[in-house]
Design brief:
The structure holds two protein chains of two kinds. Chain A is of the alpha/beta class. Chain A has helices spanning 3-13, 17-29, 34-54, 60-78, 104-115, 129-139, 154-167, 182-188, 197-208, and strands at 90-96, 118-122, 143-147, 172-176, 192-193. Chain A folds into two domains: 2-80, Orthogonal Bundle (Methyltransferase, Methionine Synthase (B12-binding Domains), Chain A, domain 1); 91-208, Cobalamin-binding domain (Rossmann fold). In chain A, strands 2-1-3-4-5 form a five-stranded parallel β-sheet, with helices on both faces. In chain A, helix 3 (34-54) packs antiparallel against helix 4 (60-78). By secondary structure, chain B is an alpha/beta fold. Chain B has one domain: TIM Barrel. In chain B, 53% of the residues lie in helices and 13% in strands. Chain B contains 15 helices and ten strands. The two termini of chain B are 16 Å apart. The chains are: A alpha/beta, B alpha/beta. The A-B interface holds A 15, 56, 59-62, 64-65, 68, 99, 101, 104, 107, 126, 150-152, 154-155, 178-179, 181, 184, 187 and B 34, 93-94, 96-97, 154-155, 158-159, 161-163, 203-206, 208-209, 238, 242, 278-280, 282-284, 311, 314-316.
Chain lengths: 214, 339
């Protein structure tokens, strides 16, 4: 990996937004392809963040600040990306299910997936199953990822999975959230349960049949 | 007479539950307004903010489930609303935040009289009046850290811990002052404060942030309860195992938990454990799974303990499953005594 990409990854990992911005500008000035800088620099950094989060070295505050740093660089580099040249591993519609307004976990999963190279359509929180279906019809994603923090809205997740499977049988479905587990995921017919953000990224690769080089 | 292993914990338990001292455990699910609304078939927006309705629901569930305690708990956001956060209410959905505050707009207020908080005191007073004096009335309130996060937005507050720690500390100071006022009022009325930490959770902030930011403010609030001759009681959502040292240093009389972590209770010998049964079981479980989990709880929790749900019972939980938890424990207890 080129040194500047390693520096970008380190700056993301160390939550240094200013340094990420400086390096992003430097990468462009020195003629590095912005697509590479995003994928081998910023995304690689977020991948390391995901590892630290999974191993309980980083917690939510660090992940949020790392994400801020990543986006500081992304906003600079994406301006120079030639349309369509940024490799996309697939597209994912993501949201928090109906009745639940807790989106911090979903936001972390979203940014990790985005950093890993997936196109994300974020429906936000309190998303009805009709809204999920409309988004799938419009966006034609490969995967729908949904979360809930509350056990009270697990039924809503079950309803959403049933609606989506009924209308889009080929669609891959991922679920996650504090009260959810693998047996619940299987019982409602989801294809993957992501116990944390990093597992969600692994799962998205699995569902797309893409090797995960974490 | 049963000889208890840990005298300090027993003393606290005897003060809290004088009727159940020989049994060595008490039982009572944690219930919020959404489950009461479901059972009473009354609009949730009314149950949340009407002390009489809230008390009606709490007293009804005490009879229905045979609880040994009552916890006055409406919704997680009520104290933030008292600070000025705007909530949207509806008859059949939990209130949610539609407008948060800027840090500079979070002020010290008279929390016991702010927003709908007086209705919680009203509910508690009705419960106290209607119940036998041996049945404790707990009063759920937020810890200062979680209140700060709910007031300005969880992500904004968590980012501030790293990027603007001075601002985060100032905000915590204001929230601490508010919650000290609230806990003073709770204790002076004779209710037992149960300080809930939905955001200051091991899963969210981990031990370092808990120790630096959450713990000092929580300690100051709990100290006020102790000074008022009440108890140091907390509920922590999510993981607790990563916070063992921090929880130990808070010298809790009672810890309500979601995550069962056996080694922790070897250290917390002076703390009454409360919880154990996953709330998920009350939605997707059946009588068999509830019975199994209850038996596990009875076998695992060090006495004296409080058999309860790990967090609040889901709104649409099957009441039969809650009854099952309560009854299984009594049957199990009788079997033990007869053996």
């Amino acid at each position: 990996m080129k040194e500047i990409y390693e520096q970008l990854a380190s700056a993301v990992l160390e939550m240094k937004s200013g340094e990420v911005e400086r390096l992003a500008h430097l990468a462009l000035k020195e003629g590095y392809p912005p697509e590479e800088a995003i994928e081998q620099g910023l995304a690689a950094g977020m991948n390391e963040v995901g590892k630290l989060f999974a191993s309980k070295v980083y917690f939510v505050p660090e992940v949020l600040v790392c994400a801020k740093a990543m986006y500081a660089g992304f906003d600079i580099l994406k301006e120079k990306v030639v349309s369509g040249s940024l490799s996309r591993k697939g597209s994912i519609v993501i949201g928090v299910v109906d009745g639940d307004f807790h989106d911090i976990g979903k936001n972390i999963v979203k940014l990790m997936l985005e950093a890993a190279g997936f196109r994300i359509v974020d429906l936000g929180k309190n998303v009805t199953h009709d809204r999920f279906c409309e988004a799938v019809a419009a966006e034609k994603p490969d995967i729908v990822a949904m979360s809930t923090l509350m056990s009270t809205t697990m039924d809503s997740m079950s309803d959403t999975v049933a609606s989506l499977k009924g209308r889009f049988p080929e669609l891959k479905l991922m679920v996650g959230g504090a009260p959810v587990d693998d047996s619940f995921s299987r019982s409602i017919g989801a294809h993957f349960y992501g116990e944390d953000a990093r597992r969600a990224v692994e799962g998205a690769h699995d569902l797309m049949g893409i090797p995960f080089e974490g | 007479m049963i000889l208890w292993e840990y005298p300090l914990k027993d003393k606290v338990f005897h003060r809290m539950f004088p009727q159940f001292q020989d049994r060595g455990y008490a039982r009572g699910p944690m219930i919020a307004a959404d489950h009461l609304s479901f059972l009473l078939r009354k609009p949730l927006d009314e149950v949340c903010r009407d002390g009489k309705l809230l008390a009606e629901g709490l007293l009804y569930t005490r009879r229905l489930y045979g609880s040994d305690l009552v916890i006055v708990f409406s919704d997680i956001n009520l104290e933030a609303e008292a600070l000025g956060v705007k909530l949207e209410y509806s008859p059949d959905r939990n209130p949610h935040i539609i407008e948060q505050l800027l840090p500079r707009d979070v002020k010290v207020i008279d929390m016991p009289t702010g927003g709908s908080i007086p209705e919680l005191f009203n509910a508690a007073a009705i419960c106290r009046k209607e119940l036998d004096s041996g049945i404790p009335v707990f009063f759920s309130m937020k810890d200062p850290f979680s209140l700060a996060a709910l007031a300005i937005g969880t992500e904004a507050f968590l980012i501030a811990l790293l990027e603007e720690p001075r601002m985060a500390m100032d905000l915590l100071e204001v929230c601490c002052e508010n919650q000290q006022r609230l806990i003073d009022a709770v204790c002076s009325e004779g209710y037992i404060p149960l300080v809930g930490s939905p955001i200051a959770s091991g899963s969210v902030i981990g031990p370092a942030f808990f120790q630096e930011f959450a713990e000092p403010a929580i300690r100051r609030v709990l100290d006020r309860a102790e000074e008022a001759d009440s108890f140091r009681c907390m509920h922590i959502c999510g993981e607790v195992s990563v916070l063992i040292e921090q929880i130990y240093s808070l010298k809790l009389d009672l810890l309500s938990f979601e995550e069962w972590h056996a080694p922790m209770w070897g250290l917390l010998q002076d703390t009454i454990p409360m919880g154990y049964l996953s709330t998920y079981l009350f939605v997707k479980g059946d009588e068999e799974t509830i019975e199994r989990a209850t038996m596990e709880c009875m076998a695992n929790l060090p006495k004296p303990f409080i058999l309860s749900s790990g967090c609040d019972i889901p709104a649409n939980a099957d009441p039969e499953l809650v009854v099952r938890m309560m009854n299984v424990s009594l049957v199990r207890s009788k079997k033990n005594l007869s053996n």
